[in-house]
């Protein structure tokens, strides 16, 4: 089994973006999957599960409303609520087709978090939304050298290789553009010009609220493009892979 663990650590707090478990024989070359054709089928029924929490307090959040959305299909595919320990589990039909999807998490006094996994939904997946308060997000922006405008989009991104490991040496851009700040040793750096190999985490702040495309390149190789919907007043958590 391979576990894809995407996490951001800031000031002693862990901010996982997404986790996925899938079966493979052994890890391959970091960019071996780059030219693989996209999947054409999916498990007819999958499980989406995870834990919701506030990473700055370290407390699991009970009663978080979670909604799952398939791209191009109006309305939520599922709605559920995290239990007393912050956990949730949903069994979801796919129709046997890969589904580009996102999970939105809402909780009082916290910003709405929308999580975008790096690949289409084809098998069971663990998604752990982390919800932050506006003051905590502003603190993150200050460390990154930004004064955030919460009417814009704010994206916390991790760049990973085909095996789910942090991809160092990557550069990230968005359309429309925002302010890109790379993490170094799990801390936003105002001088770094590419991802490090520790976490390969990027904060992209103050993107004009709109449909945004995220691009990454490393060692001359381009990653699959991620498309995210506007989320002014919230936080977007995403991952990008070859």
Report the span from N to C terminus. 20 Å
Proportion of helical residues: under 10%
Provide the gyration radius in Å.
17 Å
Note poorly predicted spans: 1-7, 9-26
- The CATH topology annotation reads as Immunoglobulin-like
Mean pLDDT: 88
- Strand fraction equals 35-45%
> Secondary-structure element sequence?
EEEEEEEEEEEEEHEEEEEEEEE
Order of strands across the biggest sheet? 9-8-11-12-22-14-18-16-17
According to DSSP, the number of beta strands is 22
Structural class: mainly beta
Description:
With about 240 residues, the protein is mainly beta. The protein has one domain: Immunoglobulin-like, CATH 2.60.40. The strands form five sheets. It has a nine-stranded mixed beta sheet, covered by helices on one side. Strand 6 and strand 7 form a beta hairpin. The longest helix has 10 residues. The N terminus is likely disordered.
